[in-house]
Fold:
Amino acid sequence: MPFSHHSHSGQFCPGHARNTLEEMVEAAVAQRMEVFALTEHMPRHDEDRYPEEREMGLVYEKSQVSHKTYFQEANRLREKFKLKIQIVIGFESEWIRPGSLDLINISLQNNDVDFFVGSVHHVHTKPIDFDQAGYDAAKEVAGGSDHQLFGDYFDAQFAMLQAIKPPVVGHFDLIRLKSGDPERSFREWQGVWGRIVRNLQFIASYGGLLEINFASLRKGMTEPYPKDEIAKTFEIMGGKFCLSDDSHGVEQVALNYHECIPYLKRNHISRVHFLESLCENLAEPIDSRFPSTKLRSLTIGELKTLPFWHSRNMPCSPSGLDNN
Structure:
């Protein structure tokens, strides 16, 4: 697919990713992508650092400086590659505790952003996708079962959605990654499914985009985020979808996008949306907070005609990377 609304580089996401930001953009150009969003993580509180970040001595103050440098570099690259690709600049937010809202607002107020991705990577302040130990710790706090943890995850997600109404909702059902049965149907747990429907209804009500995130496939799962049953439900609600590779290195740019058209077809999704920044067309703004960022869409038929699908370089097999 020629659009991605979620990516990371080793330059600004040390430990989790690799390659420079410019190398990531170059890879997107080589894949004949048309829109590539840059969304490095926002700074987090010091108590929420991952082990490798602690080893590097990465504290909040240093993260703030790096975050500012990231936006400067992103704008340089947008200008450098403007004739080859549309670069949309944002960040991935973190919802960990009530104080996360203050940090999100700092990122929004102190930087010129086109949009942001709203994600939940922690439940009960424990990271649920970093390693099994973190997931198990969160499950213990939740009461000891996947069922209870899933419910708490979607409650935390709902709190995030209400507080910040993210233009793009990241990896909606990330919670299944480290669970005992990541392919389990959510419908089996009525309380969990009710929370999912509630969250989807809220996203649809404010016009948020639900990303179809193909990172789950490189991690061994059989369906992208969100699972088919969630995608079908959101489509029936009139919800809008966008596409993301959630790349953490050049080998992951557009990885597994060959699964895109089959996913759209089996879930009866007739249209996908994408963002453009600083454009003069008559498309609607994605959000009143970001008036220069426009929302456009294509039908599946239009999608299939784009040059991307004919690129010999389109990756279609899992890479050796194992990053989040």
User: Anything to note?
Assistant: Residues 317-324 have pLDDT under 50 and may be disordered. The radius of gyration is 18 Å.
